[in-house]
Amino acid sequence: MVEIKLKPGMKFKYKGIDFICLDIINGNYLAITAKCWCIKRFNEKYEDGCNNWEKSTLRRFLNEDVLEEHFDTKHLVKQTSDLIADNGDKAYGTCEDYVTLLDCNQYRRCRKLMPKYGDWVWTLTPHSCNGDARHVHIIRQSGDLERNIAFNPVGVAPACLFNLNYLSSCWQAHIITHK
User: Fold this and answer.
1) Can you say whether the dihedral through the CA atoms of 64, 88, 51, 140 is positive or negative?
2) Which of 15, 114, 145, 161 could form a disulfide with 79 if both were Cys (CB 3.0 to 4.6 A apart)?
3) What are the angstrom distances between the C-alpha of 143 and each of 3, 117, 138, 177?
């Protein structure tokens, strides 16, 4: 068995998908896809509250279709996402996912390790949870954070928390290079 010891900033391949390790959390690897996965709407509905990650169609797509086709849940750890809005509103609470998006705080902590995407990519951070709750924060190609309407098609860069024990024994995962 080949033991894998990733460090933040290292690139690895899992089932043919390139990932970049962003952080080590409780002995597990937080990683994001090295390339924009696809272009999708955050939510297919355009109404107040459509910026709630827990109820979004993008979350359902990632944790049903993408999870089933590209991942083995034994290799992942459910990640708890904080859905606190940019304005501090905590009305959306938290949720758990195997495949998720970064929130703005995670992005700020890991910004120097993030790949440069050719498209804007979603975060899961809502702009507000009350009133005009239709905007979600995105990461621009420049690395700046900005808000966008949840109904607009934007790039998707999935993030996962890989289980160290399973990833180390998984033959499909191997280190590619340092960033």
Assistant:
1) negative
2) 161
3) 33, 9, 9, 22
